[in-house]
Write a structure and sequence with these properties.
By secondary structure, the protein is an alpha/beta fold. The chain is 42% helix and 24% strand. It has eleven helices and 15 strands. The chain has helices at 36-48, 124-127, 130-141, 146-169, 176-216, 236-242, 244-250, 271-274, 277-299, 316-326, 341-348; strands at 2-11, 14-20, 25-29, 67-77, 80-89, 95-98, 101-102, 115-118, 222-227, 261-266, 269-270, 304-308, 334-338, 356-361, 364-369. The strands form three sheets. Strands 2-1-4-5-6-7 form a six-stranded antiparallel beta sheet, covered by helices on one side. It has a six-stranded mixed beta sheet with strand order 8-12-13-3-14-15, with helices on both faces. Helix 4 packs across helix 5.
């Protein structure tokens, strides 16, 4: 799968741009802040119905404008080309269309066009709290498991209602019948989410360790460990009922898969504590390449790979290993950004394949090599 053409109108710093893309590798060079990352984010948006970097869509609309439009031609084969359209107007519902037909629900689009983003922003997976790592698990699993996506959406809706009731009760034990209703709704959802996450992390870990070993040349031992209150033989309904007194006092739900975590380790210690910047970056790149392979095997489609400024803080050896990996036939279309054109051209000498090179200057895209 690849994108043949991408167009943007009022998307972030782009007033209007259209670009014909190479089927294998597309490199974008330019200074910081000129819009390289925004191009990759536009691709991600068309695949996932949202920005990789912003939780609110309002930040995707160009300043002093009240709408934005993204369009892309996604090619899976000569006979399977999808024209995707996303339109967003301030104060209006987002429109998302495939071949001019609007989706009844945005969730119906997720997973049709798999994508993997690798960005400096991924450092939040290591440095920030458990919410970032739950979002990571959800974003990956939702691309290959529609039932999981529906379960997490429904779980969060019921959780919101239960938390609202707990606040209204203000620590008192009235209205327990309605709490029972919410508990009975949450239990099967939580157990299914736990089961899928547990299986996912178990299967991803081996692939992740393989990639880390290849990039680092086996210098460190890394691991992933899924942490959940539902681990073991715990029954969620029993767990949430036992926690009711604590929930009433706290005025929110204290147990459930919304508190899960993914522990990231190096040499059996938290990588946040012991990993250098280079090691942490290798960890994250390896995790994303494992994600790529995982989605590829499950979907039967090579995801689009977006590499945003990933070569900073890597030694020459690790850069070479990464480029050798992604140049293999196992990978499909790749987007790469870099601040230095000369350095990018040097890196591409390690890449054994065709590519396109573009200069980005304040929302303008200039073709250098195609």
């Amino acid at each position: 799968m690849h994108i043949a053409k991408l167009s943007l109108v009022n998307y972030k710093n782009y007033s209007e741009a259209e670009i014909n893309l190479h089927g294998k590798v597309n490199c974008f060079v330019g200074n910081n802040g000129v819009g390289k990352t925004n191009l990759l984010d536009a691709v991600y948006y068309l695949c996932m119905c949202k920005s990789y970097f912003h939780s609110s869509d309002k930040y995707t609309i160009r300043q002093e404008q009240d709408f934005m439009v993204l369009q892309g031609a996604f090619v899976k084969s000569e006979d399977d080309i999808s024209e995707l359209y996303c339109g967003l107007k301030t104060g209006k519902k987002k429109q998302f269309r495939k071949n001019k037909k609007e989706y009844p629900r945005l969730s119906d689009h997720i997973g049709q066009f798999p994508v993997v983003m690798v960005s400096p922003a991924d450092s939040a997976l290591i440095t920030e709290g458990s919410e970032e790592r739950r979002k990571y698990m959800n974003a990956v699993i939702s691309q290959f498991d529609r039932s999981y996506l529906e379960d997490t959406i429904q779980y969060n809706k019921v959780l919101l209602q239960r938390n609202k009731l707990l606040k209204e009760m203000r620590g008192h034990s009235g209205a327990t019948e309605l709490l029972d209703v919410y508990d009975n709704q949450l239990a099967p959802l939580a157990e299914r989410v736990f089961s899928v996450r547990n299986k996912f992390v178990s299967e991803l870990t081996e692939v992740f360790q393989k990639y880390y070993s290849l990039i680092s040349e086996s210098k460190e031992k890394v691991g992933l460990h899924y942490v959940s209150q539902l681990d073991g033989e715990t029954n969620y309904l029993s767990l949430i009922k036992a926690a009711r007194g604590r929930d009433l006092a706290a005025q929110h739900t204290t147990v459930g898969v919304h508190r899960d975590d993914l522990e990231l380790s190096m040499n059996e210690m938290p990588i946040k504590k012991v990993g250098s910047q280079g090691q942490q970056k290798t960890f994250l790149v390896s995790l994303k390449l494992a994600q790529f392979q995982f989605l590829n095997e499950l979907k039967g489609v090579k995801p689009i790979l977006l590499l945003d400024d990933i070569f900073d803080k890597f030694d020459a050896n690790r850069v070479k290993q990464i480029l050798n990996l992604v140049s293999e036939d196992a990978f499909g279309q790749i987007f790469i950004t870099h601040t230095n054109e000369i350095r990018m051209r040097e890196l591409l000498k390690e890449f054994h394949g065709a590519y396109a090179l573009f200069q980005v200057e304040n929302g303008r895209i200039i073709t250098l090599v195609q």
